[in-house]
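User: Reviewer 2 asked us to show a designed sequence for the structure in our supplementary figure. I'm pasting the structure tokens here. Could you produce the per-position amino acids so we can include them in the response letter?
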């Protein structure tokens, strides 16, 4: 221990974020693996928000909203890659039809949608916090 038993200035609190990260990861993976879109989206949202929270709490990010935006951007990229990889041709008709016919493309759309929601929440949070340029 860094401090003595009676030294209250070094009291360390436990962070709630690791539990939420673990639950978000598991729920998101189960949703993506089984193709249950609400579970996939909810798990990715919980995982992404918790990652942004723990990074902000640790002091590694300048703003939790900026970090949340970057996490959302990563999920948008991963979902787009997964969706595009299982689309027969990169045309508007094929892209819009592939989630209905291909289960892997549907999972990619779920991850992409969750990433977009994280990005929108990050933008709205930055504007509502009064510091849109941080």
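Assistant: Here is a per-position design you can include in the supplement:
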């Amino acid at each position: 221990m860094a401090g003595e038993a009676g030294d209250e200035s070094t009291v360390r609190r436990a962070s709630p974020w690791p539990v939420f990260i673990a639950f978000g990861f598991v729920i998101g993976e189960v949703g993506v693996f089984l193709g249950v879109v609400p579970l996939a989206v909810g798990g990715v949202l919980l995982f992404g928000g918790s990652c942004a929270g723990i990074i902000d709490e640790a002091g590694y990010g300048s703003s939790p909203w900026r970090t949340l935006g970057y996490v959302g951007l990563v999920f948008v990229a991963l979902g787009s890659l997964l969706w595009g990889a299982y689309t027969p041709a990169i045309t508007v008709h094929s892209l819009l039809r592939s989630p209905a016919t291909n289960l892997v493309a549907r999972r990619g759309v779920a991850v992409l949608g969750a990433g977009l929601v994280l990005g929108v929440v990050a933008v709205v949070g930055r504007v509502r916090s009064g510091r849109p340029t941080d």
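For the response letter, you might also mention the following. The two ends are 37 Å apart (CA to CA). The first helix runs from residue 17 to 34.
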